[in-house]
Design a protein that fits this description.
Elongation Factor Tu (Ef-tu), domain 3
C-alpha cells in the first residue's frame, strides 16, 4: 500500500551526513539524526523529508539513512541540503491515526521561493500550479499542511501559527529560500475527471425496470 501522510510534522531532524550513491548513479545517500523517528522506523519504511517521501535504507541508534535519486534532487530542495541542515520529518499515516492535516502523498510538485517570511508566509508559485490553489484550500509547504489565505496567479500566502513556527523549519525560512510544494491531490483528480467529459464505466447502464436511465452514465458538465 502506498504511503500517505497528513502534513503534521512529527520531528525536526538534523542532516548528519551526505554521500554519493555511486559514480554513475548521481544520487545521494542522506543520513538524518532523529531519535523520535528512528525508534519507530524500519528499513524499507517510508518517511517524508521536507514533504518528500523517501525510503529508509538503514536505521541505527537515533539516526537513519535514505537514498535520493537525481530526479528527486532536481525537483525538490533536498538537492541543496548540507550537513547540519534541519529538515521536517513525518512518518506515514496509520489506520488508527487522526487525519490532523490533509491527505499528502509526499510527491513534491515543484519548489517555490519564499517572498515573505512567516508568520505571514508568502511563496512564489511556479507556472501551472495556480489552478490548484484556492483560498481556504490546503497546500503542503516543506511537508507542513497549511491553509491558503491568499491565492494569486504566481504566488500564495498562508498564516503560520506560533506552534508551527517552533515545531517545524518554517519559522527559520528566509526570503529567497526554496520550499517544497505539493498541491492538494483531490484537486488533481477533480480536474482529470472533469476534463475527461465521458461517462463513467462504473455507472449502471439500466435501471431496475430494465430500461436505460438518463441519470446514469451522463457526461460530466
Amino acid at each position: 500500500m502506498r504511503a500517505v501522510f497528513t502534513g503534521i510534522v512529527e520531528d525536526v531532524g538534523t542532516v548528519e551526513a551526505i554521500s554519493p550513491l555511486g559514480p554513475s548513479e548521481g544520487g545521494r545517500c542522506i543520513r538524518v539524526r532523529s531519535e523520535r523517528l528512528a525508534a519507530r522506523l524500519e528499513v524499507g519504511g517510508s518517511v517524508a523529508v521536507n514533504g518528500c517521501c523517501l525510503t529508509a535504507t538503514e536505521v541505527g541508534a537515533g539516526h537513519w539513512s535514505a537514498d535520493a535519486v537525481p530526479e528527486t534532487l532536481a525537483r525538490t530542495n533536498l538537492g541543496a541540503l548540507s550537513v547540519g541542515d534541519l529538515v521536517n520529518l513525518e512518518l506515514p499515516l496509520r489506520a488508527q491515526d487522526v487525519l490532523g492535516g490533509h491527505l499528502v502523498q509526499g510527491h513534491v510538485d515543484a519548489t517555490g521561493a519564499v517572498l515573505r517570511v512567516a508568520p505571514d508566509l508568502k511563496v512564489s508559485l511556479p507556472s501551472g500550479l495556480d489552478r490548484y490553489i484556492v483560498e481556504k484550500g490546503s497546500i503542503t509547504v516543506d511537508g507542513v499542511s497549511l491553509t491558503v489565505v491568499e491565492a494569486g496567479d504566481d504566488f500564495f500566502a498562508v498564516a503560520v501559527i506560533p506552534h508551527t513556527m517552533e515545531a517545524t523549519i518554517l519559522g527559520r525560512r528566509k526570503v529567497g529560500d526554496a520550499v517544497n510544494l505539493e498541491v492538494d491531490v483531490i484537486a488533481k483528480y477533480v480536474e482529470r475527471l472533469l476534463g475527461a467529459g465521458t461517462s463513467t464505466p462504473y455507472a449502471p447502464a439500466h435501471n431496475a425496470g430494465g430500461q436505460r436511465s438518463d441519470r446514469d452514465g451522463g457526461a460530466a458538465e
